[in-house]
Design goal:
There is one protein chain. The chain is an alpha+beta fold. The protein has one domain: 2-Layer Sandwich (Alpha-Beta Plaits). The chain is built from three helices and four strands. The chain has a four-stranded antiparallel sheet. The protein is elongated and about 40 Å long. The termini are far apart.
Length: about 100
C-alpha cells in the first residue's frame, strides 16, 4: 500500500497568494496650495495632480486654497503630489494625511 503526502500544499497556497495581499489601500492627503488667485487656478492644479501616476481622485477648494487627493501609495507619494503642483506654478505642502 502506498501513502501519498501533500506536505507541499501549504507552500503552494502561499506562492499563489503572493501579490494579492501586497496592494496597499488608497490614501488621502490634503495639500495647502499657494498662488491660486482666480477661478482657472483650481482647474490647473487638478489637472497637474491627475497627471501624477497613481492619483485616483482630486478635489480642489479655491476658497480654502487646498487640494484633497486620493492616491495609490504604491505608485505615488506626497512628495510627488507637491512636486506636481509646484511644477504647474502652484507650490504646495502637506497639511493632512489621515
Amino acid at each position: 500500500m502506498r501513502h501519498t503526502t501533500f506536505g507541499f500544499l501549504p507552500l503552494l497556497g502561499m506562492l499563489l497568494n503572493v501579490g494579492v495581499a501586497l496592494a496597499a489601500p488608497p490614501q488621502t492627503a490634503t495639500l495647502a496650495v499657494e498662488n491660486m488667485t482666480c477661478g482657472t487656478c483650481p482647474i490647473v492644479v487638478k489637472k497637474a495632480l491627475e497627471r501624477v501616476p497613481g492619483v485616483r481622485a482630486t478635489a480642489v477648494d479655491f476658497d480654502k486654497k487646498t487640494a484633497t487627493v486620493t492616491f495609490d501609495p504604491d505608485k505615488a507619494t506626497t512628495a510627488r503630489l507637491t512636486q506636481g503642483t509646484t511644477d504647474a506654478g502652484f507650490p504646495s505642502k502637506l497639511i493632512a494625511k489621515p
